[in-house]
Amino acid sequence: MKTKDEREALRRLPRVAAKLLAERERLSLSPEGTPKVQPKVPPVEAAKWADWWRQRVIDRGGDPDKGDVPLGLEIEFDNEVERTRGPQIGEEVDEVGAVHPAYDEARERDALELAAVAQGLRQPIAAELDRYLAERRLKVRYASRLQRAVKALVTWRRVRPGGDDLRRIDRREAGYFVDHLIAKGLTTATANSLVSALQSYWKWMTKRGVAENNPWSDQTRKATEEEAARKVRPFTDDEAKALLTGEANRTLHDLMRFGALTGMRINEIANLRVADIDGDVLHVRASKTEAGVRRVPIHADLNAVIACRTTDKADDAFLFDELKAPARRPLERSAKASERFTEYRRDLGIQELGEGQRNSSVNFHSWRHSFVTKALAAGQPPEIVAAVVGHQSARSTVTLKTYNSTGPSLGQLRAVVDAVRLPEGVPMESPEGHLMNSGVRRKVSEIRHGKT
To answer: How confident is the model at residue 325, as a pLDDT?
Structure first.
């Protein structure tokens, strides 16, 4: 305090402490003004305990919002808050010089959050999420996106006035959150997908009387001109050849061939099981869209790969059983493979970045674009090509909706697949090859000669 006088030191303390807090806050922010280390989001169990405790108070004739709590339940509340806060780790002096116990900052924040929820001072954003997911029975991919959106919103709200409180989310806050997502580097399309998920969640909460209105309507943004110009493009033949003949492991080579010869998304490939192969047809049973659930004829150049990956495996086994989903993305078995492909592609110098562009215009999805490009160049009907790759446009015309409710024939789909060829000079099998035993060789031969 730069004084030897104790009274003067206490008088100066609030002003000095405020400056120190402001400096600590400044140092904890990135150049963009967002926290470098996001605070820990309290577990959903805390909100569940608070709901359980509140209901017990109400059942015994009390009112937790007014502090009318029976003595036994009040002691139970105090004990739970103390347990959440954890043990004392030191001491601190307040602005008048009084000494108080100090606790772990994150645990104390969780304890305050728990107390606020139990007393009706806050309404956690994620409190109704489990009930919403159970009632709506959403597709796995959409549910994962909503959980990601809610987690991002809760984390962001935790460092704003009022904290994690559903009632604080008005249209202005919703708009600020969208600004925050885009400032973090998310593309407009990704930010819009998260906003769309939050809009559905809020719509359900509004119907159930949990939320008063839906602040997320009309909060999506238009893509910038730069983003519109940075669309993923197909690989050139030279790029595809370099990738398909380069020094990569068997997993990557097999994934690339699947992408090049089926037009499937990488996660669709990663989730294929042995039972999804029916003779010379692949059944895509899980996709990001309804149109993505489809049949894809097996290209002749995939027979060896499929034979190796199905021999001696149970029907419920994954074709790419070596892939494991990361803990933070349990629904994306392709995540690590996608990262390895990006490293491999960059090592080969296959990269396209415009000015200010963060993501390359070529990535694994470029195999899908290449498949479509080659099929269309070979004169295949666009609506049939769309059916093979699972685009919604396959069912968008009045003629198809009215007169072809069953979709294209298998022969039409096969014509599209057979029209696609790998670049000249790419061997039929992966450069690393497949060590086939006699049973696998026999199976490959049977497939090639139409006997299975």
So the answer is: 85
CATH number at residue 167: 1.10.150.130
Flag the least confident range among 40-54, 82-96, 107-121.
Answer: 40-54
H or E segment and range at residue 284: strand 281-284
Q: Are residues 140 and 285 in the same domain?
A: no
**Number of domains the chain is built from:** 3
Nearest-angstrom CA–CA distance, 220 and 193 = 8
Task: Report the 10 Å Cβ neighbour count for 420.
Answer: 23
- Write the DSSP string, 106-142: HHHHHHHHHHHHHTTS---TTTTHHHHHHHHT--HHH
| DSSP bridge partners of 228 | none
pLDDT at 355 over 80: no
Residue 2 lies in a domain: no
Are residues 399 and 274 in contact, defined by beta-carbon separation less than 8 angstroms?
no
Cα–Cα distances (Å) from 42 to 27, 38, 46, 127, 128, in that order, read: 24, 12, 7, 11, 15
**Does residue 287 fall inside a structural domain?**
yes
Is there a single domain that holds both residue 176 and residue 312? Answer: no
- Contact between 191 and 148 under an 8 Å Cβ cutoff? The reply is no
Local structure of 212: helix, strand or coil: coil
290 and 157 fall within a common domain: no
Of 84, 118, 152, which marks where a domain is finished? Answer: 118
- Per residue in 194-239, pLDDT (tens digit) is 999 999 999 999 999 989 899 999 999 887 666 655 678 999 999 9
The answer to whether 318 and 276 are in contact (CB under 8 A) is: no
In a domain, 13, yes or no: no
Q: Taking CA 323 as the corner, what is the angle to CA 267 and CA 248, rounded to the nearest 5 degrees? A: 95
Measured CA to CA, the distance from residue 155 to residue 176 in angstroms comes to 14
Whole-angstrom Cα distance, residue 20 to residue 229?
A: 46
Does 424 reside within a domain?
yes
Question: Which residues constitute the domain of residue 152?
Answer: 129-224
Count of all residues that appear for the chain in the document = 452
Instruction: Please state, rounded to an integer, the average pLDDT across all residues of the chain.
Output: 83
Nearest CA among 346, 355, 360, 354 for reference residue 232: 360
Rounded to whole angstroms, the Cα distance separating 132 from 200 reads 10
- List phi, psi (to 5°) of 347: -60, -30
- Whichever domain contains 420, its CATH number is 1.10.443.10
